[in-house]
Amino acid sequence: MSSVLRIPAATPQQSLDYLQAKLAFYTDAWDLAEDLERQIPDIVVIDARAPEAYRAGHICGAINFPHREMDATTTARLDRSKVYVTYCDGIGCNGSTKAAWKLASLGFQVKELIGGLDFWKRDGHPLTWGDAPGEWPVATPKAFCGC
């Protein structure tokens, strides 16, 4: 008996529903980089790590908002019409999940960045350092995404 087919595949509609829901929760580095380069105003990127980690290198334009500091008072300044993309170090860290959970529980629209800063760097997207969010570079080399 087939190991793959031991449990029947989902129907096309079940797959469509599940995959659409999955895409509602996550974005990847390529899609986010494209939107940041195009300066899409409806997206805010949140680095959910500690300030020291943020200063040591972060996504250009990301604001530092550690998940441990998120509550109704500290998020009052955020624009509820935006979609917040949270990230942390990578797949071994759940800071982005905690940040997304806290923001969602407070009524914000959120997505998590798949692979966090690890995948961002792996794919060669630009970083900046220090306390400021930084600007997206004027000319970024175009890398190739194989998907």
Automatic annotation (TrEMBL):
Q: Top enzyme class of this protein?
A: transferase
Its recorded name reads: Thiosulfate sulfurtransferase PspE
Protein's UniProt keywords contain Transferase: yes
Domain Rhodanese, first and last residues per copy: 39-129
EC number per UniProt: 2.8.1.1
Do you know which PANTHER family this protein is assigned to?
Answer: FAD-DEPENDENT OXIDOREDUCTASE (PTHR43031), PYRIDINE NUCLEOTIDE-DISULPHIDE OXIDOREDUCTASE (PTHR43031:SF1)
Record InterPro entries: GlpE_sulfurtransferase, Rhodanese-like_dom, Rhodanese-like_dom_sf
Which GO molecular function entries does the Swiss-Prot or TrEMBL record give?
thiosulfate-cyanide sulfurtransferase activity
Which UniProt keywords are present, listed alphabetically? Transferase
- Quick one: which gene encodes this? pspE
Keyword Metal-binding present in the record's keywords: the answer is: no
Q: What SUPFAM superfamilies does its record include?
A: Rhodanese/Cell cycle control phosphatase (SSF52821)
Q: Which SMART domains does this one have?
A: RHOD (SM00450)
Which domain of life, per UniProt? Bacteria
